[in-house]
Amino acid sequence: MTSNTNKSRPMLSVRLDEQTEQQLSDILAHEKTDKSELIRRLIAERWLTLQAGKTLVERRGGHPQHLLQDAPADLSERQNRKAALSEYLKKRHP
Q1: Over residues 32-49, mean pLDDT
Q2: How far, in Å, CA of 43 to CA of 5, rounded?
Q3: What is the Cα 85 distance to its own chain's centre?
Q4: Which of 3, 5, 9, 93 has the greatest number of beta carbons closer than 10 A?
Q5: How far apart are the first and last CA of the chain?
């Protein structure tokens, strides 16, 4: 299988056994798409699946270094977080 959608990128070649090649042909016929598009879509779907196992913070690159520097130690409690956020917003938007 080859892909050459962008002339500046190298072509990708993949060796498939007979059964896998037949399965690919069946999927292509059913999906009515070409090999390159199918591979791109399958990779994107798989990548999203891997991302789903991560927390929102992990997907966004982790906590900012300065985020909790001056924060009170009891922010793990929801009620305290809500109060701290409310206070912050009142100061920011009087």
Answers
A1: 91
A2: 15
A3: 28
A4: 3
A5: 62
Task: Quote the pTM value.
Answer: 0.47
CA atoms within 13 A on the CB side of 94: 1
The predicted structure's pLDDT at residue 6? 55
Distance CA 92, CA 94 (A): 6
Residues in the chain: 94
Q: Is 30 exposed, middle or buried (0-12, 13-18, 19+ CB in 10 A)?
A: exposed
Phi-psi region of 32 (alpha: psi -120 to 50; beta: other; left: phi over 0): left
Cα(18)–Cα(21) distance, rounded to whole angstroms?
Answer: 5
Secondary structure element (H or E) that encloses residue 80, with its range: helix 78-92
